[in-house]
Amino acid sequence: MSHSLKVVGDSKKRMYGPRGILVCGFSSDERKSILKMFNDKKFKKLPVVYTGSEDRSELMKDMITRAHQSGLESECGLDRAIIMSGLTEKEFHRTMTAYKKLKLAKPLWATLTPTSENWTVEKLISELNSEKLHLEK
Question: pTM score, two decimals?
Answer without folding.
Answer: 0.89
